Amino acid sequence: MDTNLNTISIADMTDLLRREFEMVGQHLPSVATALFQKDERGLNSGEFALYEEFDTDTFASWKPQGTPTAKARAGVGYHKQAKVRRFGIEIDITDEMRKFNKKPEFISKATNLVNYAPDRIELDLTHRLTFASATSYVDRDGNTIDLTVGDGLALASSAHTLKYSSTTWSNIVSGAPTFGRTGLEAAELLAVTNIYNNFGEKRKMNFNTLFYTDNPTTENLVMELLQSTASISSGINSGVKNVYQAKYKTIKLPYLATNAQGQYDVAKKGYWGICASGSDAGAWQAYFPVWESPYMVDPMTTPSLVDGRSDIWTYGTRTSYDVAIVSGRGFIISLAS
User: Fold this and answer.
1) Does an H or E element contain 111, and which?
2) What b/e readout covers 78-93, taking b as 16+ CB neighbours within 10 angstroms?
3) What pLDDT does residue 103 have?
4) What is the DSSP code (8-state) at residue 246?
5) Residue 15 neighbours by CB under 8 Å, 6+ apart
6) What does the buried/exposed string (b/e) look like for 280-315 if buried means 16 or more CB atoms within 10 Å of the residue's CB?
7) Predicted model pTM
8) Phi/psi of residue 294, each to 5°?
9) What is the mean pLDDT of residues 41-50?
């Protein structure tokens, strides 16, 4: 292991033995961005992005003859601020390793860091769900990340508040059931009974996405329930309609059951939930502002990455983004083990 590719610390590339090298596994797919509203901020747009709710009440009021008409209420709700966070990774390679190694394809793969930034984005976005019941966590770099939403509570809470009402609401499936029809119907009941505007009046959101871990048991149950052509609980399936067939988009999140380092966490293997993904008025208020999309830096395009005195070339990648979730409204999770 080394951050500097040289013929001393990685002698296997230049010694007398004939070896065959293979990369270990494949990078995990990037899928979590589909759950968030991506906001392309771009350069020279400042370090901050503010996301804020605006609300009105719902119903017309009775107007007796000859009396003034009641006035509608309107106001801003909760808000959440994002601040740009910049990420990168680099690796060095000596002139000797470039010229004398016997496996140029290894060096090509080792200096191609194109997956590092997207993989970090996937980890950070997914961990907003992984640690949804916490108000903060310490990420893999040792930084404390604020996970609160606009009301100051954790994303997943049984006592979310409203700006202009004493009503509270929950987006945690009671009892933390593992995935199945009963658990999904409990989540759907929350979706119709615990969605309010900031005045405590009932609202509707477009719950269109079902997310879950890559635990095979959970995945198979999801596929069985959503893809069967007839109700799986029916003894005789002929002519019985499966009401869940194609009802949700499904997203398998490979980092959902992991710790802050991105290592498997068995305690979270059963996590699943539903959310209202998209960018319309019925979507979950989860924002992914991007100041710099992932890009590569290399000695050919950036001369400063060439150390002419030490004959070392540096390859790297950069990206800048943050995450801001205004409300847990439109997000429901079961913290099943």
Assistant:
1) helix 104-111
2) bebebebbebbeebbb
3) 65
4) T
5) none
6) eeebbbbbbbbbbebebbbbeeeeebeeeeeebbbb
7) 0.87
8) -55, 135
9) 95
